[in-house]
Protein backbone atom coordinates (compact mmCIF):
# COMPACT_ATOMS: atom_id res chain seq x y z
CA UNK A 1 0.00 0.00 0.00
CA UNK A 2 1.07 3.55 -0.67
CA UNK A 3 1.78 6.26 1.90
CA UNK A 4 0.16 9.68 1.77
CA UNK A 5 2.10 12.93 2.07
CA UNK A 6 0.34 16.23 2.60
CA UNK A 7 2.28 19.47 2.11
CA UNK A 8 0.51 22.51 3.56
CA UNK A 9 1.48 26.13 3.15
CA UNK A 10 -0.31 29.18 4.51
CA UNK A 11 -2.50 30.31 1.64
CA UNK A 12 -3.10 32.84 -1.08
CA UNK A 13 -6.11 34.50 -2.68
CA UNK A 14 -7.27 32.73 -5.83
CA UNK A 15 -6.89 36.01 -7.71
CA UNK A 16 -5.69 39.53 -6.88
CA UNK A 17 -9.21 40.95 -7.11
CA UNK A 18 -10.43 42.90 -4.08
CA UNK A 19 -13.25 40.41 -3.54
CA UNK A 20 -10.97 37.37 -3.51
CA UNK A 21 -8.36 39.09 -1.34
CA UNK A 22 -11.16 40.03 1.06
CA UNK A 23 -12.22 36.36 1.30
CA UNK A 24 -8.64 35.27 1.92
CA UNK A 25 -7.99 37.86 4.62
CA UNK A 26 -11.26 37.09 6.37
CA UNK A 27 -10.60 33.34 6.51
CA UNK A 28 -6.99 33.83 7.58
CA UNK A 29 -7.59 36.44 10.27
CA UNK A 30 -10.70 34.80 11.70
CA UNK A 31 -8.61 31.77 12.68
CA UNK A 32 -8.49 31.85 16.52
CA UNK A 33 -4.86 30.71 16.41
CA UNK A 34 -3.94 33.75 14.31
CA UNK A 35 -5.77 36.43 16.28
CA UNK A 36 -6.14 35.15 19.82
CA UNK A 37 -8.99 37.38 20.99
CA UNK A 38 -12.45 36.60 22.31
CA UNK A 39 -14.53 35.46 19.29
CA UNK A 40 -16.76 38.55 19.35
CA UNK A 41 -13.81 40.93 19.57
CA UNK A 42 -12.02 39.04 16.81
CA UNK A 43 -15.11 39.23 14.60
CA UNK A 44 -15.49 42.98 15.11
CA UNK A 45 -11.78 43.62 14.56
CA UNK A 46 -11.48 41.48 11.44
CA UNK A 47 -14.85 41.97 9.77
CA UNK A 48 -15.43 45.61 10.66
CA UNK A 49 -11.94 47.11 10.71
CA UNK A 50 -9.07 45.11 9.20
CA UNK A 51 -10.68 43.49 6.15
CA UNK A 52 -12.75 46.50 4.98
CA UNK A 53 -9.74 48.82 5.18
CA UNK A 54 -6.99 46.40 4.13
CA UNK A 55 -8.51 44.38 1.26
CA UNK A 56 -8.11 47.01 -1.48
CA UNK A 57 -4.53 47.84 -0.45
CA UNK A 58 -3.55 44.16 -0.24
CA UNK A 59 -5.16 43.50 -3.64
CA UNK A 60 -2.97 46.22 -5.19
CA UNK A 61 0.12 44.58 -3.72
CA UNK A 62 -0.88 41.12 -4.92
CA UNK A 63 -1.39 42.52 -8.44
CA UNK A 64 2.21 43.72 -8.41
CA UNK A 65 3.57 40.18 -7.90
CA UNK A 66 0.89 38.22 -9.79
CA UNK A 67 2.20 36.51 -12.91
CA UNK A 68 -0.07 36.50 -15.92
CA UNK A 69 0.66 32.83 -16.62
CA UNK A 70 1.58 31.23 -13.30
CA UNK A 71 -0.60 33.37 -11.01
CA UNK A 72 0.26 33.47 -7.31
CA UNK A 73 4.01 32.96 -6.71
CA UNK A 74 3.33 31.06 -3.48
CA UNK A 75 0.96 28.64 -5.19
CA UNK A 76 3.25 28.32 -8.22
CA UNK A 77 6.32 27.42 -6.16
CA UNK A 78 4.28 25.18 -3.84
CA UNK A 79 2.96 23.25 -6.85
CA UNK A 80 6.54 22.95 -8.06
CA UNK A 81 7.63 21.52 -4.70
CA UNK A 82 4.75 19.03 -4.74
CA UNK A 83 5.64 17.89 -8.26
CA UNK A 84 9.37 17.55 -7.54
CA UNK A 85 8.76 15.68 -4.29
CA UNK A 86 6.35 13.32 -6.04
CA UNK A 87 9.03 12.53 -8.62
CA UNK A 88 11.66 12.03 -5.91
CA UNK A 89 9.53 9.70 -3.77
CA UNK A 90 8.24 7.51 -6.58
CA UNK A 91 5.14 5.32 -6.90
CA UNK A 92 5.04 4.21 -3.26
CA UNK A 93 3.75 7.64 -2.20
CA UNK A 94 0.79 9.88 -2.98
CA UNK A 95 1.71 13.56 -2.56
CA UNK A 96 -0.96 16.23 -2.23
CA UNK A 97 -0.72 19.97 -1.68
CA UNK A 98 -3.06 22.15 0.38
CA UNK A 99 -3.26 25.68 1.65
CA UNK A 100 -4.45 26.36 5.17
CA UNK A 101 -6.59 29.18 3.83
CA UNK A 102 -8.42 29.30 0.49
CA UNK A 103 -7.47 26.97 -2.38
CA UNK A 104 -6.65 24.10 -2.49
CA UNK A 105 -8.23 23.46 0.93
CA UNK A 106 -6.96 20.88 3.40
CA UNK A 107 -10.26 18.97 3.29
CA UNK A 108 -9.98 18.47 -0.49
CA UNK A 109 -6.38 17.26 -0.29
CA UNK A 110 -7.15 14.86 2.56
CA UNK A 111 -10.12 13.44 0.67
CA UNK A 112 -7.85 12.80 -2.32
CA UNK A 113 -5.50 10.84 -0.06
CA UNK A 114 -8.46 8.97 1.40
CA UNK A 115 -9.74 8.10 -2.08
CA UNK A 116 -6.27 6.83 -3.02
CA UNK A 117 -6.49 4.33 -0.16
CA UNK A 118 -3.21 5.29 1.51
CA UNK A 119 -2.21 3.32 4.59
CA UNK A 120 -0.85 6.36 6.46
CA UNK A 121 -0.65 10.14 6.13
CA UNK A 122 2.38 12.31 6.90
CA UNK A 123 1.54 16.01 7.19
CA UNK A 124 4.35 18.48 6.53
CA UNK A 125 3.42 22.07 7.41
CA UNK A 126 5.76 24.11 5.21
CA UNK A 127 6.97 26.36 8.02
CA UNK A 128 10.52 25.66 9.27
CA UNK A 129 9.85 27.20 12.69
CA UNK A 130 6.86 26.07 14.77
CA UNK A 131 4.16 28.59 15.66
CA UNK A 132 0.64 27.96 16.87
CA UNK A 133 -0.62 30.38 14.20
CA UNK A 134 0.98 28.38 11.36
CA UNK A 135 2.00 24.76 12.01
CA UNK A 136 -0.36 24.48 14.97
CA UNK A 137 -3.28 25.75 12.90
CA UNK A 138 -2.52 23.25 10.14
CA UNK A 139 -2.39 20.37 12.61
CA UNK A 140 -5.65 21.45 14.25
CA UNK A 141 -7.42 21.71 10.89
CA UNK A 142 -6.18 18.29 9.75
CA UNK A 143 -7.38 16.65 12.97
CA UNK A 144 -10.71 18.48 12.81
CA UNK A 145 -11.25 17.27 9.24
CA UNK A 146 -10.22 13.66 9.83
CA UNK A 147 -12.34 13.47 12.96
CA UNK A 148 -15.32 13.12 10.62
CA UNK A 149 -13.91 9.99 8.95
CA UNK A 150 -15.12 6.52 9.93
CA UNK A 151 -11.72 4.95 9.31
CA UNK A 152 -8.73 7.04 10.34
CA UNK A 153 -5.29 5.87 9.18
CA UNK A 154 -2.14 6.51 11.16
CA UNK A 155 -1.32 10.20 10.97
CA UNK A 156 1.97 11.91 11.73
CA UNK A 157 3.02 15.55 11.70
CA UNK A 158 6.39 17.16 11.17
CA UNK A 159 6.37 19.64 14.04
CA UNK A 160 9.20 21.84 12.75
CA UNK A 161 12.38 21.57 10.73
CA UNK A 162 14.16 24.74 11.80
CA UNK A 163 17.48 22.91 12.19
CA UNK A 164 17.18 20.40 9.34
CA UNK A 165 20.68 20.14 7.85
CA UNK A 166 19.51 19.96 4.26
CA UNK A 167 17.12 22.88 4.68
CA UNK A 168 19.96 24.92 6.21
CA UNK A 169 22.24 23.95 3.33
CA UNK A 170 19.55 24.89 0.79
CA UNK A 171 19.35 28.42 2.20
CA UNK A 172 23.14 28.60 2.37
CA UNK A 173 23.42 27.43 -1.24
CA UNK A 174 21.12 30.24 -2.35
CA UNK A 175 23.12 32.69 -0.26
CA UNK A 176 26.39 31.71 -1.91
CA UNK A 177 25.18 33.47 -5.06
CA UNK A 178 25.72 36.69 -3.11
CA UNK A 179 28.99 36.37 -1.13
CA UNK A 180 28.45 37.91 2.30
CA UNK A 181 31.86 39.60 2.19
CA UNK A 182 30.49 41.85 -0.57
CA UNK A 183 27.90 43.29 1.82
CA UNK A 184 28.19 45.51 4.88
CA UNK A 185 25.65 43.51 6.89
CA UNK A 186 23.35 40.49 6.65
CA UNK A 187 19.75 40.33 7.86
CA UNK A 188 17.78 37.20 8.69
CA UNK A 189 14.21 38.49 8.53
CA UNK A 190 11.48 36.17 9.85
CA UNK A 191 7.74 36.65 9.82
CA UNK A 192 6.66 38.30 13.04
CA UNK A 193 4.22 37.18 15.72
CA UNK A 194 2.58 39.02 18.62
CA UNK A 195 4.67 38.70 21.77
CA UNK A 196 1.58 37.41 23.58
CA UNK A 197 1.60 34.30 21.38
CA UNK A 198 5.16 33.54 22.43
CA UNK A 199 4.20 33.80 26.10
CA UNK A 200 1.31 31.40 25.54
CA UNK A 201 3.79 28.76 24.33
CA UNK A 202 5.99 29.09 27.42
CA UNK A 203 4.97 26.11 29.55
CA UNK A 204 7.27 27.23 32.37
CA UNK A 205 5.62 30.63 32.64
CA UNK A 206 8.92 32.05 33.83
CA UNK A 207 11.16 32.31 30.75
CA UNK A 208 9.54 33.99 27.73
CA UNK A 209 10.13 37.76 27.85
CA UNK A 210 11.01 37.46 31.53
CA UNK A 211 14.72 36.91 31.00
CA UNK A 212 17.03 39.08 28.93
CA UNK A 213 17.87 37.37 25.65
CA UNK A 214 15.29 34.66 26.32
CA UNK A 215 15.07 33.76 22.61
CA UNK A 216 18.73 34.11 21.66
CA UNK A 217 19.63 30.50 22.37
CA UNK A 218 17.52 27.37 21.93
CA UNK A 219 17.28 25.43 25.20
CA UNK A 220 15.21 22.70 26.84
CA UNK A 221 12.93 25.44 28.18
CA UNK A 222 12.17 27.35 24.97
CA UNK A 223 12.57 24.61 22.35
CA UNK A 224 8.98 25.19 21.15
CA UNK A 225 9.44 28.97 20.94
CA UNK A 226 9.10 30.37 17.42
CA UNK A 227 11.57 33.19 18.04
CA UNK A 228 14.16 30.88 19.62
CA UNK A 229 13.88 28.51 16.67
CA UNK A 230 14.25 31.50 14.31
CA UNK A 231 17.47 32.60 16.04
CA UNK A 232 18.74 29.02 15.84
CA UNK A 233 17.99 28.76 12.12
CA UNK A 234 19.79 32.04 11.45
CA UNK A 235 22.80 30.95 13.50
CA UNK A 236 23.09 27.66 11.59
CA UNK A 237 22.90 29.40 8.19
CA UNK A 238 25.45 31.98 9.31
CA UNK A 239 27.83 29.27 10.50
CA UNK A 240 27.45 27.44 7.19
CA UNK A 241 28.36 30.64 5.31
CA UNK A 242 31.09 31.79 7.70
CA UNK A 243 29.21 34.94 8.74
CA UNK A 244 30.42 36.19 12.12
CA UNK A 245 27.79 36.99 14.82
CA UNK A 246 28.53 40.73 14.73
CA UNK A 247 27.90 40.84 10.99
CA UNK A 248 24.29 39.72 11.00
CA UNK A 249 21.02 40.60 12.72
CA UNK A 250 17.88 38.54 13.34
CA UNK A 251 14.71 40.59 12.92
CA UNK A 252 10.97 40.18 12.31
CA UNK A 253 8.71 41.61 9.61
CA UNK A 254 5.01 41.89 8.66
CA UNK A 255 3.70 43.45 11.85
CA UNK A 256 -0.09 43.90 11.96
CA UNK A 257 -1.98 46.15 14.38
CA UNK A 258 -0.82 48.03 17.45
CA UNK A 259 0.10 45.12 19.73
CA UNK A 260 3.73 44.46 20.63
CA UNK A 261 5.27 41.97 18.21
CA UNK A 262 8.60 40.14 18.31
CA UNK A 263 11.47 42.61 18.15
CA UNK A 264 13.51 43.97 16.58
CA UNK A 265 11.26 44.98 13.67
CA UNK A 266 12.88 44.54 10.26
CA UNK A 267 11.79 48.00 9.12
CA UNK A 268 13.50 49.62 12.10
CA UNK A 269 16.70 47.60 11.66
CA UNK A 270 16.93 48.45 7.96
CA UNK A 271 16.50 52.16 8.62
CA UNK A 272 18.96 52.18 11.52
CA UNK A 273 21.60 50.34 9.51
CA UNK A 274 21.30 52.73 6.57
CA UNK A 275 21.49 55.77 8.82
CA UNK A 276 24.57 54.29 10.50
CA UNK A 277 26.37 54.11 7.15
CA UNK A 278 25.52 50.59 5.90
CA UNK A 279 25.44 50.77 2.09
CA UNK A 280 24.99 47.18 0.98
CA UNK A 281 22.59 44.84 2.75
CA UNK A 282 21.92 41.13 2.16
CA UNK A 283 18.58 39.75 3.37
CA UNK A 284 17.56 36.12 3.97
CA UNK A 285 13.94 35.17 4.82
CA UNK A 286 14.29 31.71 6.41
CA UNK A 287 10.68 31.49 7.62
CA UNK A 288 9.49 31.13 4.02
CA UNK A 289 10.25 28.06 1.89
CA UNK A 290 8.55 29.58 -1.17
CA UNK A 291 8.71 33.15 -2.39
CA UNK A 292 5.52 35.10 -1.78
CA UNK A 293 4.18 38.59 -1.09
CA UNK A 294 6.27 38.90 2.09
CA UNK A 295 9.54 38.16 0.32
CA UNK A 296 9.07 39.41 -3.24
CA UNK A 297 7.28 42.66 -2.41
CA UNK A 298 7.66 43.44 1.29
CA UNK A 299 11.42 42.84 1.35
CA UNK A 300 12.27 43.14 -2.34
CA UNK A 301 10.37 46.37 -2.97
CA UNK A 302 9.07 48.12 0.17
CA UNK A 303 12.06 47.53 2.42
CA UNK A 304 14.51 48.11 -0.43
CA UNK A 305 12.93 51.54 -1.03
CA UNK A 306 13.05 52.22 2.71
CA UNK A 307 16.75 51.31 2.82
CA UNK A 308 17.60 53.55 -0.15
CA UNK A 309 15.59 56.45 1.28
CA UNK A 310 17.55 56.20 4.55
CA UNK A 311 20.90 56.36 2.77
CA UNK A 312 21.61 52.77 1.70
CA UNK A 313 22.69 51.91 -1.84
CA UNK A 314 21.76 48.28 -2.46
CA UNK A 315 19.52 45.72 -0.75
CA UNK A 316 19.70 42.17 -2.08
CA UNK A 317 17.01 39.61 -1.29
CA UNK A 318 18.19 35.99 -1.24
CA UNK A 319 15.63 33.89 -3.09
CA UNK A 320 13.61 31.40 -1.07
CA UNK A 321 13.95 27.64 -1.49
CA UNK A 322 11.32 27.25 -4.22
CA UNK A 323 12.50 24.38 -6.43
CA UNK A 324 15.87 23.83 -4.71
CA UNK A 325 16.94 20.19 -5.24
CA UNK A 326 18.56 20.23 -1.79
CA UNK A 327 15.28 21.30 -0.17
CA UNK A 328 13.35 18.66 -2.10
CA UNK A 329 15.78 16.10 -0.67
CA UNK A 330 15.01 17.50 2.80
CA UNK A 331 11.29 17.02 2.14
CA UNK A 332 11.97 13.49 0.92
CA UNK A 333 13.67 12.69 4.21
CA UNK A 334 10.75 14.14 6.17
CA UNK A 335 8.27 12.20 4.07
CA UNK A 336 10.28 9.01 4.57
CA UNK A 337 10.22 9.45 8.37
CA UNK A 338 13.88 10.40 8.55
CA UNK A 339 13.02 13.49 10.61
CA UNK A 340 11.48 14.10 14.06
CA UNK A 341 7.68 13.84 13.98
CA UNK A 342 4.63 13.96 16.19
CA UNK A 343 2.70 10.73 15.73
CA UNK A 344 -1.03 10.25 16.21
CA UNK A 345 -2.61 6.84 15.67
CA UNK A 346 -6.09 8.10 15.04
CA UNK A 347 -7.47 11.52 15.83
Give the SSE layout.
Blueprint: E1 3-12, H1 18-29, H2 39-65, H3 73-89, E2 93-102, H4 106-115, E3 120-125, H5 132-146, E4 154-157, H6 165-175, E5 185-191, H7 195-200, H8 226-241, E6 248-253, H9 266-275, E7 280-284, H10 293-309, E8 314-317, H11 325-335, E9 342-345
Parallel strand pairs: 1-2, 1-3, 3-4, 5-6, 5-7, 7-8
Antiparallel strand pairs: 4-9
How would you describe this structure to a colleague?
- The protein has helices at 18-29, 39-65, 73-89, 106-115, 132-146, 165-175, 195-200, 226-241, 266-275, 293-309, 325-335, and strands at 3-12, 93-102, 120-125, 154-157, 185-191, 248-253, 280-284, 314-317, 342-345.
- The strands form two sheets. The protein has a five-stranded mixed sheet, with helices on both faces. The protein has a four-stranded parallel sheet with strand order 6-5-7-8, with helices on both faces.
- It folds into two domains: 3-161 and 326-345, Rossmann fold, CATH 3.40.50; 178-317, Rossmann fold, CATH 3.40.50.1400.
- The radius of gyration is 20 Å and the shape is globular.
- By secondary structure, it is an alpha/beta fold.
- The longest helix has 27 residues, at 39-65.
Amino acid sequence: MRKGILLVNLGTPISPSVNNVRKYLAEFLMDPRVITLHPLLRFLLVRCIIVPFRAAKSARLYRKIWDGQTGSPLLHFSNMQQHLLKMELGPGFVVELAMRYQYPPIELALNKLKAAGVESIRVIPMFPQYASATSGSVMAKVMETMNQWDVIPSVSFVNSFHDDELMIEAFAENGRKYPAENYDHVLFSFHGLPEAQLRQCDASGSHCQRKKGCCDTLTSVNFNCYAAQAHHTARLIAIRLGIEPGNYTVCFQSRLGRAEWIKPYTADVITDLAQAGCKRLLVFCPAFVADCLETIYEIGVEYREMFLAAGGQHLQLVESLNGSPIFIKALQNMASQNAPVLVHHGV
